[in-house]
Amino acid sequence: MQARRPGLAADQPAIAEGRVVKHFAISGACGAIPARGPLTGLEDDEDGMSEQSFKRFRRRRAPAAAAPSADGGTVAAEPQQKTAPAAPPQAQLPARLPEPWDRIRQVPFDTGAEQAERLPLVSRFRTSPAAKSFDLLRTRLLHSLKARGWNRVAVTAPAAGCGTTFSAVNLALSLARVPGSRTILMDLNFRCPGMARALGIETQGDLSAFLSGSTRIEDQFVRPLPSLAVGLNRSADQDAAELLHSGSCAEALDAMMLRSGADTALFDLPPVLEHDDTAAFLPQVDAVLLISDGTRTTAAQLAACEKMLAGHTELLGVVLNRARDTDSPLN
């Protein structure tokens, strides 16, 4: 006769002690096991619940989210798969604005156009002695500036009519042909502006407003070539010396060089011996290029210019324009 454990019904077979401990350790405290039948979906062996039935029982007992069914009941929802968190949207950076040099307006420019009022531009005649002379002057100028770390050059003459504007414009055009370079040319001869006529560009600028700090380089200058920016004057100003003396002039030029990233800046200035405009502007430049006329400039005038410049700035050299007994206008 088989012994019965306390708490078991008379007609319920005993379950081996080891099986009970094993199932209890896996499932924890569990309630009454439902009766066998088609509704349970469990298969028991002769001694009780099998291992496979118990695992299936645990899956059925596991809590699951319920979803409403069509007939008003609930059905168990399928377990949700873990998904990786969505990557945060990439920060939208503001659009990058063009640098000030690229914002300077470009204007049509034709070095070969025939205009009665335009000065002769040697860029049109690349094989002429004049063009070769300006290229040689450009190379010597760049070597001197680079050796000393300079980038601002005043172009002036002892007296009017020596060819200052002619030399400044053609030298700037030669500098602009250097690959990867940026050149600025400014018409600071307020008493007799002539650079717009020399280039054949319609005069629209007002350098007085620029030097006083009320306008920026991209609003004031124009670019006849991608690597050349020019500042033009619309009208004459007989009180230019006071403006060139002002602190706003120095600040405007410093900001111009910083914002533009120019390699070289040329300033077309009035004659040294006729007005004090050039003397007032000397603190803003690194050196002076003096233009002399082989048909009218005297040695006494050159000596007077050197004396005036001494102690204020460096004299890079003297360019002889309209030289006699030579095939080149520059010497």
Describe what this molecule looks like in 3D:
This protein is of the alpha/beta class. It has a domain of 194 residues: Rossmann fold (3-Layer(aba) Sandwich), CATH 3.40.50. Helices cover 33% and strands 15% of the residues. The strands form three sheets. Strands 5-8-9-7-10-6-11-12 form an eight-stranded mixed sheet, sandwiched between helices. Strands 1-2 form a two-stranded antiparallel ribbon. A two-stranded antiparallel ribbon has the order 3-4. β8 and β9 form a beta hairpin. α4 crosses α5. This is CpsD/CapB family tyrosine-protein kinase. Keywords: ATP-binding, Kinase, Nucleotide-binding, Transferase. One of its GO terms (molecular function) is kinase activity.
Rg for CA atoms: 46 Å
The biggest sheet amounts to:
8 strands, mixed
Series of secondary-structure elements, N-terminal to C-terminal: HEEHEEHEHEHEHHHEEHHEHEHE
Architecture of the domain at 128-321, CATH level 2?
3-Layer(aba) Sandwich
Indicate the percent of residues in helices. Answer: 25-40%
In DSSP terms (H or I, runs of 4 or more residues), the helix count works out at: 12
CATH class of the domain at 128-321: Alpha Beta
Strand order of the largest sheet: 5-8-9-7-10-6-11-12
Instruction: Give the CATH superfamily of the domain at 128-321.
Output: P-loop containing nucleotide triphosphate hydrolases
Residue windows where pLDDT falls under 50 for at least 5 positions: 8-43
What is the average per-residue confidence, as pLDDT, rounded to a whole number?
78
The structure class reads alpha/beta
Choose one word for the global shape: elongated
How many DSSP E strands?
A: 12
Distance, first to last CA: 138 Å
CATH topology of the domain at 128-321: Rossmann fold
Provide the β-strand percentage band: 15-25%
